[in-house]
Amino acid sequence: MKLRSEPGTLSFTTIDDAIQLTQELLARLNKLGDYKYPLSVRKGVSRLKPQEESRVVKAGSKTYFFDIKQTKEGKSYLVITESRFKKEGEARERAALIVFPEHIQEFVGAIEEMTKRLGEA
What CATH code is assigned to 48-120? Predict the structure, then answer.
């Protein structure tokens, strides 16, 4: 809020104005922190194209991302990314696995078989 006492005088910002702006900035930064891809917001672009899909599975200190992406040629593929918490104050560690459509049935079959074995154990 800029104040003018008389015509011809300079406007100035008060400490209260600075505090209000700081609170607004903090609120917006917190909102950005909730986004999946905060840097994309900065660039003003979305990382996921309309034809791409994404699912998230949270499992304790790990988060799994299942994303369907497309190559430049338009071929779809599955990316499974694991993001896990290492230690306090350290960055999260990520690892990714890519599965192309020609291998998906065998991949799903192996998961189903191993899931069945887990249930038997």
Answer: 3.10.450.700
The count of residues in the chain is 121
DSSP labels for 58-114?
EETTEEEEEEEEE-TTS-EEEEEEEEE--STTSPPEEEEEEE-HHHHHHHHHHHHHH
Place of tokens 């020609």: 102
d(CA 49, CA 82): 21
pTM of this structure = 0.54
pLDDT at 1: 46
Nearest to 32 by CA among 43, 24, 41, 23: 41
Write down the residue that tokens 């607004």 correspond to: 24
